[in-house]
Amino acid sequence: MSNTLGASPWQKAWQRLRTNKAAMLSLILLVMISLVCIFGGWLSPWELDDIDWDNMATAPSSQHFFGTDANGRDLFVRTLQGGQVSLMVGLLATAVSFIIGILYGATAGYLGGKTDAVMMRLVDVLYALPFMFFVILLTVYFGRSIWLIFIAIGAVEWLTMARIVRGQTLSIKSRAYVDAAIIGGASSFTIIRKHIIPNTLGAVIVFATLTVPQVILFESFLSFLGLGVQEPMTSWEVLIAEGAAQMESSSWMLLFPAGFLAVTLFCLNFLGDGLRDALDPKDQ
Questions:
Q1: Neighbours of 100 (CB within 10 A)
Q2: Cis ω on the peptide bond leading into residue 232 (within 30° of 0)?
Q3: Residues whose CB is less than 8 angstroms from the CB of residue 253 and which lie 6 or more positions away in sequence, other chains included
Q4: Which has fewest Cβ within 10 Å: 79, 214, 251, 255?
Q5: pLDDT of 206-240, one tens digit each?
Q6: How far is CA 119 from CA 84, 122, 158, 201, 226, in A?
Q7: Which has the closest alpha carbon to 36: 236, 247, 187?
Q8: For residues 78 and 234, is the Cβ–Cβ distance under 8 A?
Q9: Distances from the Cα of 217 to the Cαs of 148, 154, 224, in angstroms?
């Protein structure tokens, strides 16, 4: 009891999160998966594109922990490399949408009036544009690149983030501390930076956590269409697409990357649910 009396809202939220076993287990698993993907490749003598000519599409063994693919490449190394790419796409694209959405939504919600109307109508127009058409245009003009994926997905995901932040801002800007800041002569920029954005972070962090798996699935969709990650790089989604074609004869090619992806998505969703409960203002 004494530990919570002088605690900040964020400390109280962390204490509530720690009591959520599913969320904490998910967080631990996510950290372990990330560390394995980053450092696990050192356990194998094989490089990403090394070909074992004597073992084409062979089952898991002491020589190849996850077996090999149809081209004789070590699936263990490729799965871990694919995890790095998939997690990087999910985190960076979400970070892009996080930054743009917060700034845009907070500005629109706080300024209100015609400015808010124009800014949000622009969001509606962008929502109406076909996502795949946008990606194909970027691919034609800039070529296939992993950075293109960040731009394409981030350019779509920030729209929902902006709407959420705007809704939060509309309720926050009527609070007493915002009125006090206005009376004290604070500029709109200062109020947005010091009072609006910090108080929207609870809902935004929860949404960002749930956005990461959605972004990973977006990348999966693009990779299945041949618009995602290109050789020599790989991702879990690319490996799943390759494994699906060999599922009947070489099931391990599908099971290992699909298993990593499924566990990661489950953990992200459980963590998002835990954060939602921990940051719920009704509990504070």
A1: 17
A2: yes
A3: 57, 67, 69, 70, 75, 239, 242, 243, 246, 247
A4: 251
A5: 788 778 888 887 777 777 677 777 777 788 878 88
A6: 36, 5, 13, 21, 34
A7: 236
A8: yes
A9: 16, 13, 11
